[in-house]
Design a protein that fits this description.
Elements lengths: L6 E5 L4 H9 L7 E3 L2 E5 L5 E5 L1 H6 L5 E4 L8 H10 L8 E5 L18 H9 L11 E5 L15 E5 L2 H9 L7 E5 L2 H7 L8 E9 L2 E8 L6 E9 L3 H12 L4 E9 L22 E4 L3 H7 L5 E4 L2 H9 L7
Parallel strand pairs: 1-2, 1-5, 5-6, 6-7, 7-8, 9-10, 9-12, 12-13, 13-14, 14-15
Antiparallel strand pairs: 3-4, 10-11
Helix pairs in contact: 1-9
Length: 326
């Protein structure tokens, strides 16, 4: 790929703001061209989708990418129609970004009759056609369970990436950066993320039984006098993160913050983090990314939230620059 041949980045309409951030980023401006798709419906409600003529005719001479959102089941079918069509328009290479693999927490079958829908989604994405240069690539950031990469068939390439680079950048700018320790809410998070934050002291928490209840306690590491930043892949209702913050402060942490790549927040559960005069939040900062744009928009400007955009990470992969994630 030459500088004269920008990558064409298509996107679902729900990801438009993030696509604009990618294309306008100072490091990738002019190297990424946004593709245009008309997302319409027929009278019966089924998708009526059109790739604009200019973008369609130039695909044979460009690499292409698509920024997808699999957060809403109702929007998946129309995106699959595009994902299956673009490689057949002879894009030289096709890379699909699924920042949040929404079925990731449904990867296990513990009882007969349960369905692992993560495997179903992987099968669906594995049907994306190949390009003239080979298989299409599916990129996921901080997938919930690493074994889910093996749910995909060999017909596509899978790239598992992390957004922890954004956290490292942000921590380096803090006035108390020398007092930061990284805390993990459980052993699983510690195993997944320890190597990505090896430059910081670590604290590992664990849930233990307290009578009929379960509570979070510090299992290993020293939180005393530290700014403890809890690190995990996603947050739903936030109960575990809040209890972890309380446990760290009980263990002597002066400050508690957290970073999660995916702020899922069903039923506006992000409001639990905001706090009130009667019940203040235990967090100094709650960092999330814009991998789920609706969640990012909901918390933007709400303390203690701060949104760190994954746009530079996506732009880096789209253009083929040396990897940022480490």
């Amino acid at each position: 790929m030459t500088e004269a041949s920008p990558v064409i980045l298509f996107y679902h309409r729900s990801m438009e703001a993030l696509a604009q951030r990618v294309a306008s980023h100072e490091d990738y401006r002019g190297r990424i061209k946004l593709g245009r798709i008309t997302w319409d419906t027929f009278a019966d409600g089924f998708p009526n989708i059109k790739v604009h003529d200019e973008d369609c005719s130039s695909l044979e001479h460009h690499d292409a990418a698509f920024l997808a959102s699999m957060r809403e089941p109702a929007e998946i079918f129309e995106q699959l129609a595009i994902l299956y069509a673009l490689p057949r328009m002879r894009a030289r290479h096709f890379r699909v970004f699924v920042p949040y693999f929404s079925t990731g927490t449904m990867e296990r079958v513990d009882a007969y009759g349960e369905v692992a829908t993560a495997a179903t989604m992987a099968r669906i994405l594995s049907a994306i056609p190949s390009c003239p240069t080979g298989p299409s690539t599916v990129v996921v950031y901080d997938i919930h369970a690493l074994q889910e990469q093996f749910y995909f068939a060999d017909t596509v390439l899978v790239q598992l990436k992390s957004a922890v680079h954004l956290l490292r950048q942000r921590l380096a700018s803090l006035p108390d950066k020398d007092k930061v320790s990284i805390a993990f809410p459980d052993d699983g998070a510690a195993k997944r993320f320890k190597r990505l934050v090896s430059g910081y002291p670590h604290v590992v928490c664990i849930k233990v039984r307290d009578g009929d209840a379960r509570k979070v306690v510090v299992k290993e590491g020293d939180a005393a006098g530290r700014h403890c930043v809890i690190l995990d892949d996603l947050v739903q209702t936030g109960g575990t993160l809040i209890e972890c913050a309380k446990a760290l402060k009980a263990a002597g942490a002066t400050t508690a913050s957290c970073f999660v790549t995916h702020g899922v927040f069903p039923n506006q559960s992000w409001k639990r983090f905001v706090g009130t005069a009667e019940k203040p939040t235990p967090f100094h900062k709650v960092w999330i990314t814009d991998s789920i744009p609706t969640s990012a928009a909901a918390v933007e400007g709400q303390e203690p939230f701060e949104v760190l955009s994954i746009a530079p990470l996506i732009g880096n992969l789209v253009t083929g620059d040396p990897p940022l994630e480490g």
